[in-house]
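Q: I'm writing up a methods section and want to include an example of the input and output format. Could you take the sequence below and give the corresponding predicted structure tokens, formatted cleanly so I can copy it straight into the document?
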Amino acid sequence: MGKLRVVLIKPSKYDVNGYVQRYESGLMPNATLSHIASLTPDEISGSQIELEYIDEYVRTDLSYLDSLKARDGEITLVAVVGVQSHQFHRAIDLAAFAKSHGVRNIIVGGPHPMTCDTTLLHDRGVSFSLSEAEVVWTEVLEDAVADGLKSIYGASNRWSPVIMDREFRVPPRREIESHWVPMVGYYPVRGCPFVCSFCSVIKIAGRQVRNPSIQSIVRALKKIEKAGVEFVVFTSDNFNKFPEAENLLEAMVEEKIGIRFWFQADTQIVNQERLLHLIARAGGAEMFLGTESFDTNDLKSVQKRHNRPATYSEIVRMCRETGIRAHFSNIFGFPNQTERGIRDHVSILKELSPEFASFYILTPIPGTEQYKDYLDNGLIVETNLDRFDAHTPTVVHEFIRPEKLQNLLFESYEEFYKDAMIKHKGRIDRETRNYMVFCRLSAARRMHPMSSGLGAVEMDRNTDYLELRRKTFDVGELLPLPVNLELSAADQEINRKADWRVTS
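A: Here is the clean output for your methods example:
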């Protein structure tokens, strides 16, 4: 029996000084690596599969780059996965590195190649996946065994109609313990019913809910708990729109799964108090909410009409009652927003007093409807994809200078968490207080808390890889801003038939 060595690597990004972002301990775990690993069989086409995981954000020893080199007598497949637009330069550099070291089977996949035109880079010895892994991964593995990948995969449809049950592969211990508490990311449900223009989710995952069976999810959580994991990040969007959420939560309670979890919800959870109580019973510890703004006109401008700011205080009350930490997401830089409006927003937020808050700059993410609109109208002023990270200004704003907007972002972190630490003193546990301190320190260092970690390490830089990028892809220092890929007719039909009912 032959052997296929599969190396899954989640790329980091280049920071403002060109360094690859690396941390001794990460904040948020990656869900893509374990998900694709779970789609990978032990053998295929008569070849045994040897699997490696690499989350580049938490690798501070460059020895892992040796895994991206060909080895005598075996076939290697390097898959650069979960690639977002601000990680795309780093992704193609890793691909170029692997190719320069003899690897013949290399594929890049994730949100950016799924939603943006990468034609410029095709037919250069590196493949691209334009769809979910479920659609193409088996074919990719079979072609790798034959030692010859196609240039692109998944061009005809972006999404798998159903999510089949798979046995979850728990990440190696090193990956679990590379974050500040032993944690893993898990993606039980896909799909979002909303049409927010700034969000890439409906282009990546679609509007139709899809999930494996409840039994499969429960088995995965049992394996995760048995592995000594203390915390699970459910990376699914709007968990409260999952029609089988109650069945899953009841099964978790019945099976006595004792693991705590972080989850996302939309603000319509205000109408689902019973569900929130059940989430708390099942181990829900923190709820991340896309509140974004207190101004309904701002919300309408980005097609987020389902949010009702008048309900935000009730959501905080519900969280207090259930013991779930409320985490409000906030966006600055709406077209008609002013500096005064941002400061008023932070004041209102402090009055509501959720435990946690995150702040982002409105960013037209490549692949979204907002990006197409801004690009078509010449409003995008940033030309470096690395900066499309939601904490760097990228577009023309009528009322706020770019430097001021970014300063307001980090100042808001400092102001909010200084206030929160006073208001919640004596009521919060050590974990909550530590996160509050972390957010203040990160903001003071002008590092975004939600995309950073503990112990930043500066090692290699983009200039170390630039010649490889040029040689492999015949491009300059910066790729041109991409244009969006349109959904196929089949995928448009999936979105059209989405049967999620949005509650009012």
